[in-house]
Amino acid sequence: MTIRIPTQAFSDQKPGTSGLRKKVTCFQQPHYLENFVQAIFNTFQSCENKTLVLGGDGRFYNRDAIQIILKMASANGISRMIVGLGGILSTPAASHLIRKYQTDGGIILSASHNPGGPKGDFGIKFNTANGGPAPENVTESIYENSLSLSQYLTIESDDVNLDQVASFELGGMKVDIVDSVQDYADLMEKLFDFPIIRSCIRTGSLQLGFDAMHAVTGPYAKEIFVRRLYALSSTIINAVPQEDFGGGHPDPNLSHAHDLLTIMQSSDAPDLGAASDGDGDRNMILGRDFFVTPSDSLAVMAANAHLIQEYKMGLCGVARSMPTSRAVDKVAEKLGIECYETPTGWKFFGNLLSAGKISLCGEESFGTGSDHVNEKDGIWAVLFWLNLLAVKKQSVEQIVTQHWKLFGRHFYARFDYEKLETESANKLINDLREKLPSLVGNQLQGFVVNDAYEFSYKDPIDGSISEHQGLVITFSPDARIMFRLSGTGTEGATLRLYIELYEPDPEKHQQDVHTVLKPLSDIGIQLAKIEEFTGRTEPSVIT
Length: 543
Ligand code: G16
Known about the structure:
The protein is globular, with a radius of gyration of 23 Å. Strands 2-6-5-3-4-9-8 form a 7-stranded mixed β-sheet, sandwiched between helices. A 7-stranded antiparallel β-sheet has the order 20-21-24-25-26-19-27. The chain is of the alpha/beta class. Helices cover 34% and strands 26% of the residues. 1,6-di-O-phosphono-alpha-D-glucopyranose is lined by residues 17-18, 112-113, 277, 281-282, 344-346, 363, 365, 367, 486-488, 496.
């Protein structure tokens, strides 16, 4: 029987770059999760005949949230829920299920790369029927609904068993508990040349080291790399998903993937090192003692896509987020295809992917993906690289350095200043925004300012406009610095300073990245008066 629970609206349920992310303790407040879920259901004209996918990255509170959402879905009249076994689905696997079963969307529980556990973070995002993250008009309407809620619906029922593949009814709603690993692995097997990768792994000419960071990809990695590609089980480290990610920070970058880094710097390092994040949509690619920036990874993939079965007919177009380096632009130019520049957030790629304008896209924030699902996809990226290595018979370092020779190198770094006081961070951005017009023509540390502007985006498909998407300063010789406030943090504000310098001369490609970028980071730090506004003399993390 449907129960109506009176509630009061919360004013802080505005989704950020990727859904609603807050501390677990915030979600545990009475009615907090329920209100947001009801706001999602309220945006449907009717829940009748609707099917949704549901699952999460397995972090603390995942199982509780799934029980709450299932009962609410039933009370709201949803007809069928497809739920990941154990309540677990990686974000790309959820996107695949939405598309495969042609559902009306999905609810994914994840705070991505943010730490988990009772004192960590939790998150919830809604993906639409195309499998991709809800676009801004949908998240805006969920937010507006959340502001005027006075009740939510649920049913009284025992918790359901999430740990067995089964189908049953919950208050008249059908629930299917599915094993998403097989579905996802089958999709990967269609996209990549498994026989050639398998044969290289068997002969020992291709070795992989994969760090699942105690997050969601462990079971997917075991099925794909070990069972289907015959890699040794020791290939996968931190393979068992844990509610608190083993106390770690499931962010695949040089600061947090320590275990993998140690392996890749050892004398018997494998050919390819890779890691993925909490919900399996991010990836980091390493060669032997060699880091591939996500921007370079995207560019190398675009330049070599024709060598991969699925993309051998060529790419229809590519896209990158504004702060991502322009390495892929050079490739697009050579291939004669369009390269779109979007704001940060995977949701901005959705329309381009669905309209067939692009088949490959990526971001500096360790995300790459294609039109195989409408999400970034960590394991897909690793398979892409494995397939490339198997075909090209070169090392990761050789592939990347040859790419630089052909296209030039985009030196790149990102400085993050985390947990800032929100008001000071906003003041910093406002102050810099006002200063932008006066910067053009100035000479700073040997660089002349060409242009200084605030980035905004007009979606080429639906014409919607997204403003205030970051401040950009471009220079001669060819370089850029960019500033944004992150939309995924849960404590205060995070300021991101992105730095990029293009170097066409191969003689200069081996220079140290931080030495090369130092004058530009100094310019950025001084122009934005980072120390003055925030009191910080050093970034919290450099990636
Ligand atoms: C999310 C988004 C990405 C974005 C990243 C960083 O990734 O899906 O599109 O690039 O956050 O965003 P921000 O700079 O606003 O923190 P994920 O993996 O956290 O879902």
